[in-house]
Amino acid sequence: MTLRGAAQDWFHTLLSGLISNFKKLAYVFTKEYTSYQMMKKNLDHLYNLGKKPDESLRAYIKRFKAKKANIVGCDDRIASSAIKEGLPAEHNLCHELTMTSSQTLAEVFTTAERYALWDDDRIASKKSTEQEDLMTKRAYERSDKLGSKDKDKRTSRPQGEATTKENYTKFSIHIHQILAQVKDKPWVKRLPPLKGDPSKRDTRKYCAFHGTHGHNTNNCFA
C-alpha cells in the first residue's frame, strides 16, 4: 500500500506468492531499480504493444503493465485507451471497454482480469480436447497396427466374431463408444461394403462401423 504510480504497477507484475516478507520485498525492489538504468519511454510504446495472435489475454495484460511501469507520469486515461487499442477489434474485452469507456485504469484492469480468467479456462479446455483427440488417435493407430499383422489371417475368415486367441489392444471402454467419438474425424476411413449375400447375415447383430448386419461393433476386426 506504500507504493505509488510506476512502482505499484511494477509490483503487480510480480509472480503470485513471490513476496513472503518485507525483506524479500525490499530485495526485489532494490534489484529492480538499481541493477539497470531504466530508459525513459513515451506513451507511443504503449500504443505499439498490441496483443499477439498466439498470446493469452493474461500474458498481454502482464506485458502491458510492465511496459507502463517504465513510463514516468503515464496518464491513466491514455493507458486505458492504449490497452483497448492493443486488442483485436473482435475481442470481447475490446467490446466491453468500448461500451464502458468511462472506467478508471484500475477498473479496466479489474475487467481485464475477469476476461483473463475466462480466457484461461478456454485455453485449458482447448488443450484438454486436443489431448483427448491425440490419445484417441494414437489408440486407433495402435489398434490398426496390431490388426494389420493378422490381415492375411482375417481375410480367410468371416468378418463376424473375434476368437479369444487373438491379441488386440485392450481399451478401457467398449469399441462402439470409441467409434462414436472418432467417427467424424478426417483420419477415420470407412471400409467398402461387406461381401456376400446380405440376406444370409445374422440380423440380430449390427456393426456401426460397417453400417450393416452380420456381426457386432465390439467384435468387428476392421
Overview features:
2 domains, mainly alpha, 222 residues, 2 strands, two-stranded antiparallel sheet, 9 helices, single chain, elongated
Secondary structure elements and pairings:
Blueprint: H1 5-11, H2 22-34, H3 44-47, H4 57-68, H5 76-85, H6 92-99, H7 105-149, H8 151-155, H9 175-182, E1 206-207, E2 212-213
Antiparallel strand pairs: 1-2
Helix pairs in contact: 6-7
Polypeptide structure, described:
With 222 residues, this protein is mostly helical. The chain has two domains: 5-126, no CATH class; 150-219, no CATH class. The chain has nine helices and two strands. A two-stranded antiparallel ribbon has the order 1-2. Helix 6 (92-99) packs antiparallel against helix 7 (105-149).
Major pleated sheet: 2 strands, antiparallel
Count of domains: 2
> What string, H for helix and E for strand, traces the elements in order?
HHHHHHHHHEE
What is the tally of beta strands? 2
The global form is: elongated
Q: Can you list the strand order of the major beta sheet?
A: 1-2
What's the number of helices?
9
Percent helix, as a range, is 40-55%
Backbone CA Rg: 30 Å
Percent of sequence in beta strands: under 5%
The parts where pLDDT drops under 50 for at least 5 residues are 35-40, 158-164
Distance between the termini: 68 Å
Multimerization state: single chain
**Class of secondary structure makeup:** mainly alpha
Roughly what is the average pLDDT, rounded to an integer?
Answer: 78
